Amino acid sequence: MTDFYEIDFWDVESDKSGDAISMRYRIGEKVYVHVVDGGYQSTGESLVHNIQKYYGEVKKIDHVVATHNDGDHSGGLRPILENFEIGTLWMLRPWIYAEELLDRFENYESAEYLRRKLRSLYPNLAALEDIANEKGIEIREPFQGQNIGAFSVLAPTKSRFLDLVVASEKTPEIATDDPMAKKAGLAGLFEAAKKVAKEFVNALWGDEIFSPKETSAENDMSVVQFANLVGDRILLTGDVGRGGLTEAADFAPFVGLNLPGIDKFQVPHHGSRRNVSSEVLDRWLGPKVPENQEGTKFKAYISSAKADEHHPRKAVVRAVYHRGGKVFATEGTSIQTNRNAPAREGWNTMTPMEYPSEQEPE
Predict the structure, then answer these.
(1) 18, 55, 131, 153: which has the highest count of C-beta atoms within 10 A?
(2) Domain that holds residue 297
(3) Number of domains in the chain
(4) What Å distances lie between residue 91 and 27, 43, 331, CA to CA?
């Protein structure tokens, strides 16, 4: 039978955006089901329903990936684990590295105490661990170089992940001479205190203003996955930041990915200005193209709630178009990308977002 894939970016409608992605793909005689994040706890049941409805009454999910701890990504995975047979659960648990991290935390003398503390600070992942242990589900660490079905993990490396755990605002009691601690700053607080820009500025084609602030360490822990399915190069990014995207790009040649060259690109963190830059996007998607150039080089997908006035940022949408792409956002509806996939009744052609003629000021 013909190889195919279908990737669904499910609607996670709330006043804040969330990520819930599922996919089904055939390679040769084998069909795989793969879930990446599940939105909030309140949206997990709808994800279960959608998978059962559109993927042929699936009983087993081969791979479940929690890209990072945030509740808008991993919260909804609990019903997935509870309602399906699971092949492997992939997630990064800071607490299992307590012994390696102990000397970087000046107020902890016991690895066991640090383990308990870290586990309490990452409750969404801890809850998934509890369910997995109860059901006998295998848990594996998705570090750079691992293969998750047809997907290769491009980031993070273990060493960088541990650095991010130390830098995280969740774990402030760090050794004062740790270099990552000094770089941490107030990223988490900045992320929590975001405000909507009240005014926008008109901008010419090619102009891009990104935030000088970096995304949080927790976001940059996100698992970055790449696959070539039916000839399409697909990148899934979670909430990863510039550092993680750079680390992933450095590793891309080792999985046969020559950059720039992505066909289907998940824009990280619902289209935030703190996760990408012109330089990072040039590396992944290619340089800017002339205005009104015909044709579409690639397609980009953003999980953003219609009620979320923070996302996506206009500057990010503009940046995709500057490189010859088109942007599709959930914005109150589920969207899909596929190749050779079975037709679905009631699913219509998606309409891309319009190119914004203005953007957020610096």
Answers:
(1) 18
(2) 4-359
(3) 1
(4) 24, 20, 27
